[in-house]
UniProtKB/TrEMBL annotation:
Any Pfam family: FA_desaturase
Record keyword Iron present: yes
Main location: membrane
The protein's name in its UniProt record: Acyl-CoA desaturase
Keywords in alphabetical order: Fatty acid biosynthesis, Fatty acid metabolism, Iron, Lipid biosynthesis, Lipid metabolism, Membrane, Metal-binding, Oxidoreductase, Transmembrane, Transmembrane helix
UniProt lineage: Eukaryota, Metazoa, Ecdysozoa, Arthropoda, Hexapoda
Membrane topology summary: Multi-pass membrane protein
PROSITE patterns cross-referenced by the UniProt entry: FATTY_ACID_DESATUR_1 (PS00476)
Domain description: The histidine box domains are involved in binding the catalytic metal ions.
Domain Fatty acid desaturase intervals: 85-288
Family label: Belongs to the fatty acid desaturase type 1 family.
């Protein structure tokens, strides 16, 4: 049986739903106006900056982004193509640590990994320079359980900026803190490799986000320290952060909703390329326990998990049956799925 790892009241669907689909998969009229006006009405009723600002984060994030813009205009990407390729290489490396590691493995338990792969994922995740694994997993589980409500750390109904980066610039909404405390994190704390990474997060981050990625081009192909620093910190690091944040912002605002028209998350190709395979976000919110994070996804992260499963380091890869996906898509989707034309229009949609 496919586990629903989040909670009994999560919106995630399992095979059980298929058996009992008449009661569990409800058909509602698509109220597009309601969806479009949600952001506006939230702003009017709740206000924007009710919570206290984190000035340290505001200054740091703003300065880094100013440096990013300056570096993009002044850095000569053609002076040494190896250095430019290393920017892309580190985006993939860090991207796999985030998507394959802290997201699909530790948050959603969409597959299991042997200690060898978990060590690799800890190192790769550290190279993304984000919060420690405990904080990331807890926030993301809250995000799935209370998507786009006050308890969602990056509630997209508060607008693009808040869901992209604004949420990191202010204290959390009391509901986020309350719900975050209720999240069961025992599985993460039972993994000694994850616990080690949480305990030594600052030092691991320093080594794998900053030190080694900068040293590598200097010693491998005689890049200058200055260019190695600018390319890895001001360009690559900021790109990785923004690509990851775009899942919470772009992929909750723009795109289609083939699997559930009644939620904000969307399918967005730009986000998919930027995040090495996490842009099928409408699907992911409906089936968060699918190791592919997409119905058809054969992108970088999924292929790497498949590779590790071939050598035995990844196992118990979970995914829903095609029948369940099709049923959900027809009952709740917005009609944009490519299979929509191939199946009879459901009577429930005509009423
Ligand atoms: Zn989401
Ligand atoms: Zn997720």
């Amino acid at each position: 049986m496919m586990p629903n790892i989040l909670s009994s009241d999560s919106k995630a669907l399992t095979e059980k739903d298929l058996q009992n689909k008449e009661s569990s998969i409800t058909t509602k009229a698509i109220d597009k106006n309601n969806k479009q006006n949600r952001s506006e009405s939230y702003t009017k009723s709740e206000g924007w900056f009710k919570t206290e600002l984190k000035w340290m984060n505001i200054v740091t994030i703003s300065l880094l982004h100013l440096c990013f813009v300056y570096a993009c205009f002044t850095f000569n990407f053609f002076e040494n193509l190896m250095t430019t390729a290393w920017i892309y290489g580190m985006i993939i490396i860090a991207g796999f640590g985030v998507t394959g590691g802290v997201h699909r493995l530790w948050t959603h338990k969409a597959y299991k990994a042997k200690w060898q792969l978990r060590i690799i994922l800890v190192v790769l995740y550290a190279s993304a320079g984000m919060n420690d694994i405990f904080e990331w997993v807890r926030d993301h589980r809250v995000h799935h359980k209370y998507t786009d409500t006050d308890a969602d750390p990056h509630n997209s109904n508060r607008g693009f900026f808040f869901s992209h980066v604004g949420w990191l610039m202010m204290k959390k909404h009391p509901d986020v803190i309350r719900r975050g405390c209720e999240i069961d994190m025992s599985d993460v704390l039972a993994d000694p490799i994850a616990v080690f990474a949480i305990k030594y997060s600052p030092i691991l981050k320093f080594i794998f986000t900053f030190l080694l990625p900068i040293m590598f081009p200097v010693y491998a192909w005689n890049e200058t320290w200055f260019r190695a620093f600018v390319s890895q910190i001001f360009i690559r690091y900021i790109l990785v952060l923004n690509f990851t944040w775009s899942v919470n912002s772009v992929a909750h605002i723009w795109g289609s909703r083939p699997y559930d028209a009644h939620i904000n998350p969307t399918e967005n190709l730009f986000v998919n390329y930027a995040t090495v395979g996490e842009g099928y976000h409408n699907y992911h919110h409906v089936f968060p326990w699918d190791y592919k994070a997409s119905e058809f996804n054969n992108f970088v992260t999924t292929n790497l998990i498949k590779f590790f499963s071939k050598i035995g380091w990844a196992y118990d890869l979970k995914e829903p049956s095609k029948e369940l996906v099709k049923t959900v898509m027809r009952k709740r989707g917005d009609g944009s799925h490519s299979l929509w034309e191939a199946v009879p229009y459901p009577a429930s949609k005509i009423e």
